[in-house]
Specification:
Helix content is about 30%, strand content about 15%.
Length: about 425
């Protein structure tokens, strides 16, 4: 059992997939624009080859640079997990870079380290993007193990523009002790602690890292990068208390969302979850500070300086040249990695998202077309005209009187029938 738990930590199920089947196509269309997938290989400090993909506009705008978000997958995930992020980021003129960490997916390596060695893989990726003149700012988006990787790297590189941290754990040792209760392992506490110490030695020998060093609470007070925290309320694998602890000790500008982001089921360790459908029938406005397009909605703050996303937002119409169909793809067998689920949505829906940019929390939203808005207004007016005045409700005393009268009539009818039967006999 101990060796199974060790493999659960450093050798979870590995994603074996076909990039041409589970990634976006090499040339595809999204939100009425053309994009391309550029596959490449990088080598980390340990000599492992990392399989990477970079999603870019096709053709790339001349004499301009665009921001890039690096997506970091979970412990059993791969670069295909970034498909959902690409749906949101690419229409906003933000390129997406994703990779298989060492020990995951199609990259080299035998073990994962839940963020410890993955931090060095991320450093190689950021160095590559820094050398690319087409990339301006760099942001990080991590989930589970990927979120811990972003935190560990962000403490070393304050030049990162912003981070999205989804379901990070605060301390690996604490998480392992919690999993004992989650999986109902009935052993005395001192026995569990002895087993964890044995696992610590085995993991350090195999994966070359100490589980006691993997503590995000030590790096959070030293990190000043703007961050958006997300966690699921019903997450049983990594409980929300982990994000709360990191959130409280984090030094940078931050915002927190507790919602259904990281669901935990029977395969809680797996990163290949089925996310909620994202509406993609409408394009999202470009970032005002990145692309010279129509200004988007700015951040709304209350008097106390906190972000208020519930105030009235000025919606903007879609560009006239926008195509109605924003998603076109050739392969129809995108089943297991969340590709097809991300392309759902109806024409009447508007896609909205939150982005961290320059230390501010911004809410971007797309509005309905003017014709659709007019038709909705007409329907509302017709409904108002058709409203019939509702008669005032009768007081309870009248209802009681009527019920009593009805009861008396029923009694009389029953008595008459009984008397009639007696006379007849």
């Amino acid at each position: 059992m101990i060796h199974q738990f060790i493999n659960f930590v450093i050798r979870p199920p590995r994603a074996d997939y076909n990039p041409d089947q589970y990634l976006w196509e090499r040339d595809f269309t999204l939100a009425g624009r053309a994009y391309k997938r550029q596959d490449l290989e990088l080598t980390n400090a340990r000599g492992h080859t990392l399989q990477c993909s970079h999603y870019l506009p096709s053709p790339f705008p001349e004499d301009s640079s665009l921001p890039c978000v690096v997506y970091c997958h979970g412990n059993s995930g791969c670069r295909a997990d970034a498909n959902e992020a690409a749906v949101i980021l690419l229409p906003s003129n933000i390129t997406v870079f994703t990779l298989d960490f060492s020990g995951s997916g199609l990259s080299d390596g035998d073990y994962v380290s839940l963020g410890w060695h993955e931090r060095d893989d991320l450093k190689i990726v950021v160095s590559y993007l820094r050398s690319n003149k087409q990339i301006s700012r760099i942001g990080l988006w991590g989930r589970s193990m990927g979120a811990v990787t972003c935190l560990l790297y962000g403490a070393e590189d304050p030049s990162i523009a912003g981070m999205v941290l989804d379901s990070a754990f605060s301390n690996l040792y604490v998480l392992m002790m919690e999993l004992v209760d989650v999986y109902k392992i009935r052993l005395p506490k001192f026995t569990v602690k002895m087993a964890v110490q044995y696992m610590r030695r085995v993991i350090e020998k195999k994966a070359k890292f100490d589980i006691m060093d993997l503590n995000c609470l030590q790096v959070a007070p030293k990190t000043f990068i703007p961050a958006l925290f997300g966690h699921a309320k019903d997450d049983k694998f990594i409980q929300t208390s982990h994000s709360d602890l990191i959130y409280k000790s984090y030094a940078g500008l931050l915002h927190k969302i507790i919602s259904g982001v990281h669901s935990a089921g029977s395969d809680a360790a797996s990163s290949s979850y089925a996310p909620a459908a994202i509406a993609t029938k409408k394009s999202v406005g470009d970032l005002s500070e990145i692309a010279p397009m129509t200004p988007t909605v700015g951040p709304v703050h209350d008097q106390d300086g906190t972000l208020n996303c519930h105030d009235t937002l000025n919606l903007q119409d879609r560009p006239n040249g926008q195509n109605e169909e924003c998603c076109s793809y050739t392969s129809s067998n995108r089943e297991s990695w969340g590709r097809c689920s991300s392309l759902g949505g109806s024409d009447g829906e508007s896609s909205d998202f939150t982005a961290v940019h320059n230390g501010h929390q911004k809410v971007y939203t797309t509005s309905l077309q003017p014709e659709q808005q007019k038709s909705l207004d007409l329907k509302k007016e017709v409904k108002k005209k058709k409203k019939v005045p509702i008669a005032p409700k009768k007081p309870k005393s009248e209802k009681l009187e009527k019920l009593e009268g009805l009861g008396k009539r029923l009694r009389l009818c029953i008595l008459k029938r009984v008397n009639h039967r007696r006379h007849h006999t």
